[in-house]
Amino acid sequence: MIKDKYADEIIDILNESGYEAYYVGGCVRDALLGVQPGDFDITTNAKPDETAEVFSRKGYRIVETGLKHGTISIICDKRPYEVTTFRVDGEYVDGRHPESVRFVSSLREDLARRDFTVNAMAYHPKMGIVDYFGGQEDIGKRVIRCVGEPVKRFEEDALRILRALRFAGRLGFSIEERTSTAVNECRELLKKISAERIYSELCNILVTDSAADILEKYVDVFGVFIPELMMMVGFEQKSKWHVYDVFKHTMVALKNSPKDLIVRLAVLFHDVGKPHVCVEDAEGFRHFRGHQKVSCELAGEILRRLRADNKTRERVCRLILHHDDRIPVEETAVLRLMRRMGEDTIRSIEVEKADNSAQNPDMVYGRFVDLGKIEKLYEKLKKKDDLCLKLSDLDISGSDVISCGVKAGPKVGEVLEALLEEVTEKRLPNEKEALVEFVKNYF
Ligand code: ATP
Ligand code: MG
What we know:
This protein is α+β, with helices and mostly antiparallel strands. The chain contains 23 helices and 13 strands. It has four domains: 134 residues, 2-Layer Sandwich (Beta Polymerase, domain 2), CATH 3.30.460.10; 83 residues, Hydrophobic Seed Protein; 159 residues, Hypothetical protein af1432, CATH 1.10.3210; 52 residues, Orthogonal Bundle (Serum Albumin, Chain A, Domain 1), CATH 1.10.246. The strands form four sheets. The protein has a seven-stranded mixed β-sheet. Strands 6-7 form a two-stranded antiparallel ribbon. A hairpin with a 3-residue loop joins strand 8 and strand 9. The site of magnesium ion has 2 residues, from loops.
């Protein structure tokens, strides 16, 4: 079933030295699903120092990855193989990381501490699969089920709530009924989990095929750490442009967007500001003027709170701020877009496409065709090597500008920005002589 040259070798060596050893966790699950495992984890009754000794004696390079948790990495062909001693988690201090771990002698105990039945199987190359908790049956039924009592397992470690959603999303499984009920019942426990760990799981969930389905079904869970989402739920748009409420619209857009984290974060929050700017006119139609800016601000707050890295936050916010710009099908407009969006130019088109795809089809078909044309224009322009999109692409430097008589300091940057604008708008060629001339005349 599972076959990996080096993992087999590691298991062999441990067995020869008198220890038990098995493939365990995600790799067993993935192999049963016919998916290529990302990495191969091994579990053994050898204590970490015993594992280290066996392999260093044989000349392997080892790294003490997580000695506290009983993990030693053995490097084979430059790849780390994690070998972890059978263990159970120590005391959980109010639903966070266990403070300590305790090594145990039986595989069964090690498997019993794992989160879901599909993640709690082991495999031995000679003895086959070890499955005490019905993992194979649950793979057959395509369900995520806690090992043991779901509420108790979520109380031990609330992050498992999001892990359940992540695996359901990634594998396209549903969450077994009792586990699903517990996911909802225990959701408030997520408040004890650090923002970093929550954000990391959120990202993992967002880039799965079923992200939108999971978010829709478990919105109350996400609402615990992103309460802003709750205002979107059921918020009617009452507009000829729309056929869904704000949340449903967002979910349909999410479903129709590529599985790219930046795009998906932008789509998730692109309309989060709508409930805050809504104005209803005399005929009962709703308008959301300025929602781009408010959505951008709220997304910034949310991502800051979740401790997203600055670069991701800035890129997502920029996409949101401009998601409704509706640029015309013209070369200069696309160049302006490229200048503004940089590496995210195509993402900005993808966000608009996704947004469109979740609006009233009768109203947006024309724009959809235009977006296809804009994308083609972009593909064409991108290939040009004389593109002038950033200050460093200009055929003039800051010191040249100073030589023209501009005072050194912030003014130089302003002049360069102005020149870039002139060049992208095709009012000036990107040639030094013309640029110098322009500076001398205007500044
Ligand atoms: P992936 O392919 O995403 O890495 P994985 O199953 O390997 O999936 P990991 O997060 O790498 O997931 O964890 C490895 C294994 O450790 C899991 O399969 C599971 O058995 C166990 N595990 C990890 N985190 C927890 C947790 N919070 N509670 C219980 N068991 C866990
Ligand atoms: Mg893993």
